[in-house]
Structures are given as structure tokens and as C-alpha cells.
């Protein structure tokens, strides 16, 4: 169970990281997938000591997700520095960032397609009685 402080810090980090990916680093990752990549911060979980932040990302319009995640990992120092500039008055230390791929949207889309493909035959008169 996360404390209220962890939840508040996680919400602030999610907001700030989202802005960093949308404003400051928009062109840093676009060339990797052949087009414009849309990176969304879906969730942030913070350790009890606020030293580690697990950041879950959703990558839209990305052809090679593994390569894009590697590029994000390589730029984690830059991302952490940009984050530090934003939260320097709220946090004593900037947490170490660990990035993970959040595939919840893709999983939901896959399940929707599976449910849409199910054919349920109409019940016969004998089965209704």
C-alpha cells in the first residue's frame, strides 16, 4: 500500500514526465520509428524512500518498441536532469528512473478483437425450455 506522500510524488512525476516527453523530447525519439512517436506516461510507482520511480510508458505509432525503449533508457540521465529542473523545489532528491513498457492498451485492443470474433449461435427451442 502506497502512502499519501508516495501517491502525491507519483502524480507529480507522471505529470512532469509527460510534459517532458511531449514538449522537451518530442524530436529525440521520432527518427527511430520512421515517423512521429507519441509517448505517454501511463503510471508512476515510487519506492517508500522516494529514491526510485518506476515509470510505465505507452508507445503509440512506434514500429520497433524494443529499440525505442532502449533509446529511452540511454537518455534516462537527460530525462532525469530535465525532471530535476522541474521538481527541484518540491523534492529533496530526484528519484532514479526505471522505464517499463505498458502494454495495457494493446492487450485491451486484442481482447476486444477476440470478443468481436466470437460467434454465438442462437438458442434452439429445446434449449430454451
Automatic annotation (TrEMBL):
Q: Coiled-coil region(s) at which residues?
A: none
Lineage of source species: Bacteria, Pseudomonadati, Bacteroidota, Cytophagia, Cytophagales
Q: Which UniProt keywords apply?
A: Cytoplasm, Ribosome biogenesis
What family is this? Belongs to the RbfA family.
Q: Does the keyword Disulfide bond apply?
A: no
HAMAP family (alphabetical):
RbfA
For this UniProt entry, the molecular function terms from Gene Ontology, in alphabetical order, are:
ribosomal small subunit binding
Q: Which organism is it from?
A: Fibrella rubiginis
Could you tell me what this protein is called?
Ribosome-binding factor A
Q: Name one GO biological process term.
A: maturation of SSU-rRNA
Amino acid at each position: 500500500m502506497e502512502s499519501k506522500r508516495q501517491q502525491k510524488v507519483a502524480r507529480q512525476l507522471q505529470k512532469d514526465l509527460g510534459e517532458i516527453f511531449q514538449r522537451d523530447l518530442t524530436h529525440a525519439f521520432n527518427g527511430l520509428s520512421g515517423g512521429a512517436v507519441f509517448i505517454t506516461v501511463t503510471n508512476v510507482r515510487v519506492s517508500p524512500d522516494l529514491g526510485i520511480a518506476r515509470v510505465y510508458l505507452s508507445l503509440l505509432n512506434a514500429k520497433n518498441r524494443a529499440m525505442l525503449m532502449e533509446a529511452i533508457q540511454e537518455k534516462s540521465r537527460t530525462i532525469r536532469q530535465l525532471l530535476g529542473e522541474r521538481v527541484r523545489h518540491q523534492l529533496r532528491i530526484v528519484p532514479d528512473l526505471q522505464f517499463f513498457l505498458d502494454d495495457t492498451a494493446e492487450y485491451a485492443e486484442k481482447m476486444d478483437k477476440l470478443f468481436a470474433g466470437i460467434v454465438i449461435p442462437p438458442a434452439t427451442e429445446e434449449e430454451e425450455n
